[in-house]
């Protein structure tokens, strides 16, 4: 499962569900999952366009993998909107460690990620949304 709200999403590929246009949720974890998917597809489109422009690769065909990487990388449980730390089981993943490029809980940020640059996931979601809007405008 990807997101607690996935029942509202429509299938676009065989193994990845995409949210409808204008999808909104209060769950920062779901928002980040959604934005990671959008970034993944924007990068895929840009790669495809670049691939088609090069003379040496113009005749190549890009095929989907049997199993998508996103399924395992960004999975959430249906039971909860919050995602909890695998080390500190009672702590929610509420921070984004920019140094390590991963979600962390407060305890992890104070110990293993002490000197690392971080942001709250709500802030990261806003920044990611702006980044995606910019990338999408480049693709259009």
From TrEMBL:
| Pfam families cross-referenced by the UniProt entry | zf-B_box (PF00643)
Q: Name one GO cellular component term.
A: nucleus
Kindly list the residue ranges recorded as spanning the membrane.
33-50
Q: Which domain of life is it from?
A: Eukaryota
The record's PROSITE patterns line, in alphabetical order, gives:
ZF_BBOX (PS50119)
What subcellular compartments does it reside in?
Answer: Nucleus
What keywords tag this UniProt record? Coiled coil, Membrane, Metal-binding, Nucleus, Repeat, Transmembrane, Transmembrane helix, Zinc, Zinc-finger
User: Chief subcellular site?
Assistant: nucleus
According to the UniProt entry, its GO molecular function terms are: ubiquitin protein ligase activity; zinc ion binding
Q: Which residues form the B box-type domain?
A: 80-121
In Swiss-Prot or TrEMBL terms, this protein is called: E3 ubiquitin-protein ligase TRIM33
Native source species: Cacopsylla melanoneura
Q: What is the lineage of its organism?
A: Eukaryota, Metazoa, Ecdysozoa, Arthropoda, Hexapoda
């Amino acid at each position: 499962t990807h997101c607690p709200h996935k029942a509202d999403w429509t299938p676009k590929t065989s193994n990845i569900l995409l949210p409808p246009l204008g999808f909104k949720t209060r769950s920062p974890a779901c928002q980040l999952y959604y934005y990671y998917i959008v970034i993944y597809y924007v990068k895929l489109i840009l790669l495809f366009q670049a691939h088609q422009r090069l003379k040496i690769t113009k005749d190549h065909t890009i095929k989907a993998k049997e199993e998508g990487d996103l399924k395992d990388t960004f999975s959430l449980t249906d039971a909860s909107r919050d995602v909890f730390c695998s080390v500190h089981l009672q702590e929610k993943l509420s921070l984004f460690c920019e140094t390590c490029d991963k979600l962390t809980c407060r305890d992890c940020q104070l110990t293993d990620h002490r000197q690392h640059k971080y942001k709250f996931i709500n802030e990261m979601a806003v920044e990611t949304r702006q980044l995606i809007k910019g990338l999408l405008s480049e693709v259009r």
